[in-house]
Amino acid sequence: MPLSVTELVSRLKSAVEYGVGEQCVVGEVGSCKMAGSGHTYFTVKDASAQLQCVFYRYQAMYCRVRLREGMLVELTGKPTVWEGRGSLQFVVSSVREAGLGSLQQQFEALKRKLEAEGLFSAARKKPIPRFPKSVGLITSASGAVIQDMRHRLESRAPWMQAYLYPVQVQGRGAELGIARAIEQWNQAERFSLPQVDYLIIARGGGSLEDLWCFNEESLARAIAASKLPVVSAVGHETDFTIADFVADLRAPTP
Q: Rounded to the nearest 5°, which phi and psi values hold at 146?
């Protein structure tokens, strides 16, 4: 006799809760978001897998650890199956910080290296033109960011001409496309690009993984080598990338 979806999910829930029980797991925090209810929803991962987690408000309020992306944590809790969606979830009862995750370690290592080379120095940063006539926008052609930037420019500087160089702003190899755009705009005539007074590289908010292309050394060096001033408008106010430190100016997400 076939089972209904509800019956099967209920059996899976019982099998997981009673068959696995309370466990301690170590992993790196991925995406992390606190809901209006006060509950924290996040992922914990290693090189091969990831697990959806929830840290309920009544448990989190007694925890001194502030969860953030890239943190390595030791979690105690119980797995369950959320019946509404049939999805596996780890219900966290306690959190202990175990160190920096691999991505955060890479970020800190590159930050130290480039800082030691002087790439973050205020002395090498180029001034942004006070009354620019044109700007080159390096971002995705789709999504909210390009629309927001256009609206801001139209309302605040209607005289300024904006040109878009569409690029991928997430995923493997995205940093190469952004770096290529910077390099080509520094040779505008050769690549038949319009002359601009400065460049803006932009992307909306996201997880550490989503923004990772802006933490790659190849892009950092392309920004540093640019003769045109470069503004970094990447992520939310709380997000910091290597591109922000190397750019001539960091701006809020438009």
A: -65, -35
Tokens of 122: 């205020």
Q: Is this model's pTM higher than 0.90 or not?
A: no
- DSSP E strands in 46-182: the ranges are 50-55, 71-82, 87-100, 134-139, 161-166
62: DSSP letter: T
The 10 Å CB-count burial string (b at 16+, else e) for 130-162 is eeeeebbbbbbeeeebbeebeeebeeeeeeeeb
Task: Tell me the mean pLDDT in the region 116-125.
Answer: 95
Q: What is the pLDDT of residues 154-163, one digit of tens each?
A: 888 889 999 9
Q: In one letter, which amino acid is 115?
A: E
Q: CA-to-CA distance for 111 and 116, rounded, in angstroms?
A: 8
The rounded distance, in Å, linking the Cα atoms of 92 and 58 is 11
Residue closest to 146 by CA, chosen among 173, 166, 123 = 166
DSSP string covering 193-251: ----SEEEEEE----TTTTGGGG-HHHHHHHHH-SS-EEEEES-TT---HHHHHSSEE-
The reported pLDDT for the residue numbered 100 is 66
Cα–Cα distance between 242 and 247 in angstroms, integer? Answer: 9
pLDDT digits (tens, 9 = 90+) for 126-149: 999 988 999 999 999 987 889 888
φ/ψ of residue 173, rounded to 5: 85, -5
Q: Is the pLDDT of residue 252 over 90?
A: no
Query: Average pLDDT for residues 215-221, to the nearest whole number?
Result: 96
